[in-house]
Write a structure and sequence with these properties.
The protein has 137 residues and is of the alpha/beta class. It has 7 helices and 7 strands; from the N terminus they run ααβαβαβββαβαβα. The protein has a single domain, classed as 3-Layer(aba) Sandwich (Rossmann fold), CATH 3.40.50.
Length: 137
Amino acid sequence: MLDFLRKYGYPIPEELEAGRPRVALIVDGVQTGRMANALQSAFEVIEYRDPLAALIHMGEQPPDAVVLGAELGHLSGVQIIAALKRGEGTRHVRAVLLAGDEMDRQAALEAGASAHVRASDLGGLRDTLSALMGLRH
């Protein structure tokens, strides 16, 4: 319900406003900390190191959105997006791929990604997630 209210610009009751949207980060490398810091002012950020453990946890407690790297060891971001979109309880999760090339972007969109952003564009990532969730700055 909160998602609907935000998306369509309805006033949000104070009791509901206190909860920030949950964003899962599944990103390889040192950029995870920088991304978490850039997003924490507007979102509740959950960081995952292992993509398979992330999928299991998200199946039990789905976030509002997930930010994924294109390559995550034994799984790719596209594979995780496809798995989320197949799940009854997770198909609503918005997926943002940190895409490096056009093939990654196209594959992610075909798998059901909501958007793609360059990994170096932290402001763009925050703005994209805000727009996907109907948040105003």
